[in-house]
């Protein structure tokens, strides 16, 4: 115990050293900047980037879209958070997206995006991302770049080992970081050990629509499930999860959860469990969770509260789950493109551990076990080990693959990216990162076919890389060219929120299916004003529905009378434009629901509850035409 505590504090000391060198005034690129770097990131005006990169926003709850190699930010896609820029989470149509069993939760902590795949290759249809805090998984439609669906994950807390997907997008997986009582109940915290559960949720994705549904929850022992990765190729059908806190400590975690020499990677044969549940296995449990779906034709989300979930006890399905001992609180869990190697990065280990899928199967076949934990067989470390990358750096976190036999592991404490060879385990290159890198990303790095041209490091500490902007800096990404033998640092660019991970895809795979216009003729919104004749005002008790249209450069109607203090006024605004990229905005004085941004063909609704008598203006917030400043109107509010 002593030993590891010392190692841990020793590492912290080195971390302080490494990060403090950023304080010495002027930054340096580290001397590794290659010649011609500028040319290789330069995308001329009017030209397009080669890749899209989707960065998680961390505590912004959103996703940001960047181009590579330019590092230009194209868009922020609202997912789990209210977004004043376009009224997401404020408009009546989008509020249901943020509904949960805890009520309306307009925020989350989004960590890991993953792009859908077909036959182990990126297909660019959807991107999934997890909400850690109030456990949720979102699906974003990559034809519209809009959040299409959010499903809450019950019996779970700290939905961290998500949202990774299997090679035909059969499942998106969600694993709980915090073990919790299942079902939730009033019980002493000290009774954690042996009583809390770690739910691993397998959420099926419908092949055509992408619609998510929790197929089953595997009720694992109460460890912390940190990260996960699907098997692929030969290991398709398996999923791997790193665990820490196999000590099952519930207090003073930084000491008490770091006692064991090895924690586990849990290998889950989901095909076997799928078969088991398809044959009627498992137990249906009451569980409340929201399922929110956005419809592109009504332009409206609906939220349904589900009442039960199918759970599976892993000890009831022989051969379904094994534990692979892995040193020192492994964080990242990454499977290489061939599906053979499972890399477990022990945060507090000085070596990288690589397991072999083939050896794992052989050991299982021979039933060579080293005891069990809660009825789950533990394999022998030596029997599943493929190799060790010896002393590559300090504080390994995450590994990416270039598809050319190389792996790239981030080291938080020694603040660097280390390139090493699969099979020989030798370190072949290293580059410093500025500073303290978390994840790295290679476009397609989670698939069988990575595009090994660029590597992005997502750095936790920015310090002196940009002009100071007060005590809080945006985070920083760095772009490396990895097409040659050595990594070359090309470029720094700031990122928004706290990107934990990113997913990249060749631009050409998305451009072909990109949607530019919602057709007015396909608008099925119940309050749409599709033609000039459809605009009207309807009163129903205190509710007033205004069917309003907008087209350059006026609102219809633009003078509204007959409204009283205490009314609920719904402005249902249809943008009748049918040109690409001509949105109109709508803002009302004193409205607490932010504003709307209505794209062509769409209808969106702002609820306004007038509090004061008077004549109150509204206007278009998006500079849409030469007569944008004329896009305005008045509402007369009379006493109740
Ligand atoms: S975690 Cu953040 S650096 Cu959420 Cu993927 Cu490792
Ligand atoms: Cu419409 Cu400005």
TrEMBL record:
Protein name: Nitrous-oxide reductase
Keyword Metal-binding among UniProt keywords: yes
UniProt xrefs under PANTHER family: CYTOCHROME C OXIDASE SUBUNIT II (PTHR42838), NITROUS-OXIDE REDUCTASE (PTHR42838:SF2)
Alphabetized UniProt keyword annotations: Copper, Metal-binding
Gene3D superfamilies on file: Cupredoxins - blue copper proteins, YVTN repeat-like/Quinoprotein amine dehydrogenase
This protein's record includes keyword tRNA processing: no
Protein's organism: Arenibacter certesii
GO cellular component: cell envelope
């Amino acid at each position: 115990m002593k030993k590891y505590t010392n190692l841990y504090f020793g590492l912290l000391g080195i971390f302080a050293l490494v990060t403090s060198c950023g304080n010495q005034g002027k930054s340096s690129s580290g001397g590794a900047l290659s010649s011609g770097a500028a040319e290789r990131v330069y995308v001329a005006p009017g030209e397009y980037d080669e890749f899209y990169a989707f960065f998680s926003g961390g505590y912004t709850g959103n996703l940001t879209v960047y181009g590579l190699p330019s590092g230009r930010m194209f868009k922020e896609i609202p997912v789990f958070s209210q977004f004043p820029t376009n009224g997401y989470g404020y408009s009546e149509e989008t509020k249901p997206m943020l509904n949960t069993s805890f009520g309306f939760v307009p925020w989350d902590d989004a960590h890991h995006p993953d792009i859908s795949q077909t036959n182990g290759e990126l297909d660019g249809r959807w991107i999934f991302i997890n909400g850690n805090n109030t456990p949720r998984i979102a699906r974003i439609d990559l034809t519209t770049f809009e959040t299409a669906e959010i499903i809450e994950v019950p019996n779970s807390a700290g939905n961290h080992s998500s949202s990774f997907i299997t090679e035909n997008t059969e499942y998106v997986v969600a694993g709980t970081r915090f073990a919790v009582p299942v079902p939730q109940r009033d019980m002493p915290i000290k009774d954690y050990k042996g009583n809390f559960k770690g739910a691993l949720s397998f959420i099926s994705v419908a092949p055509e629509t992408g619609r998510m549904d929790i197929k089953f929850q595997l009720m694992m022992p109460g460890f912390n499930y940190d990260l996960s990765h699907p098997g692929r190729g030969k290991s398709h059908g398996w999923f791997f999860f790193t665990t820490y806190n196999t000590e099952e400590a519930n207090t003073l975690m930084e000491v008490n959860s770091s006692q064991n020499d090895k924690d586990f990677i849990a290998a889950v044969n989901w095909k076997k469990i799928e078969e088991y549940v398809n044959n009627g296995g498992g137990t249906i449990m009451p569980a409340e969770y929201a399922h929110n779906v956005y419809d592109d034709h009504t332009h409206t989300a609906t939220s349904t509260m589900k009442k039960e979930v199918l759970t599976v006890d892993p000890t009831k399905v022989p051969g379904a789950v094994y534990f692979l001992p892995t040193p020192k609180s492994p964080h990242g869990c990454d499977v290489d493109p061939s599906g053979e190697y499972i890399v477990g990065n022990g945060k507090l280990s000085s070596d990288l551990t690589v397991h072999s899928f083939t050896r794992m199967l052989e050991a299982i076949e021979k039933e060579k076990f080293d005891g069990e934990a809660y009825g789950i067989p533990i394999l022998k470390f030596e029997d599943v080990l493929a190799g060790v990358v010896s002393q590559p750096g300090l504080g390994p976190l995450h590994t990416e693959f270039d598809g050319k036999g190389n792996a790239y592991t981030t080291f938080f404490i020694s603040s660097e990216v280390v390139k090493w060879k699969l099979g020989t385990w030798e370190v072949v290159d290293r580059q410093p990162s500025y500073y303290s890198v978390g994840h790295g990303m290679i476009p397609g790095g989670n698939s069988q076919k990575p595009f090994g041209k660029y590597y992005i490091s997502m750095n936790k500490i920015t310090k002196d890389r940009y002009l100071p902007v007060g005590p809080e800096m945006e985070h920083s990404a760095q772009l490396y060219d990895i097409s040659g033998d050595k990594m070359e640092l090309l470029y720094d660019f700031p990122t928004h929120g706290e990107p934990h991970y990113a997913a990249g895809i060749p631009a050409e795979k998305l451009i072909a299916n990109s949607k530019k216009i919602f057709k007015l003729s396909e608008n099925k919104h119940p309050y749409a004003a599709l033609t000039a004749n459809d605009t009207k005002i309807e009163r129903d008790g205190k509710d007033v529905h205004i069917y309003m249209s907008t087209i350059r450069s006026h609102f219809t109607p633009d003078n509204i009378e007959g409204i009283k203090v205490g009314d609920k006024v719904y402005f249902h605004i249809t943008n009748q434009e049918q040109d690409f990229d001509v949105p109109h905005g709508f803002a009302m004085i004193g409205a607490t629901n932010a504003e709307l941004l209505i794209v062509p063909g769409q209808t969106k609704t702002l609820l306004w509850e007038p509090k004061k008598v008077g004549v109150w203006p509204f206007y278009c917030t998006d500079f849409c035409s030469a007569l944008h400043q004329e896009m305005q109107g008045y509402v007369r509010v009379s006493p109740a």
